[in-house]
Predict the 3D structure of the following.
Amino acid sequence: MVLFNTLNRLVFFALPDCLAYYRFLVKKGTFIVKSTLLSVMVTASLLLSSTAFSKEAKFGLSVGTPSLINFVYKGDRLHFSGGYWGDNIRGIELGIPFYDIKHSYLTTINATVGHTRTEDSMNDVDEWTYVGVSTTIDFNGFYIEPGLTIGKGDYDSPQLSLQLGYLW
């Protein structure tokens, strides 16, 4: 219950920041990405109820997209990964599984939305706001999650995404 309350507060306090980011994206003219980002954030906050958590929910750590080293939550209805490592590296990704495969290494196919930001020592900032699709391949807790994203930012579209991690 404590975890649920913490995540619930995180989503509802983070939502105003997402709306501010939404207004920023409107100014940049990225209509498709910004409207999808807002839609997924609102949907995720609505799904973040006691029914979003199940006995099969897993937590873990991964390396890769969106923030190099990520904290991970994978439930039946919502996947979340991200990290904040100071102003230099940060990112967040939400996924909604739309196809579950039981009794297989290929466990889910997910619709994803995310944002990543990196800054080097020369203050060169690279950002990528994206939507995409990914699949989770699970080997007894170890998982690989390759994906394909499209979006706006400092990288060419489309981009490949990848997470390698372990879930408890």
The mean pLDDT is 78. Residues 2-28 form the longest helix (27 residues).
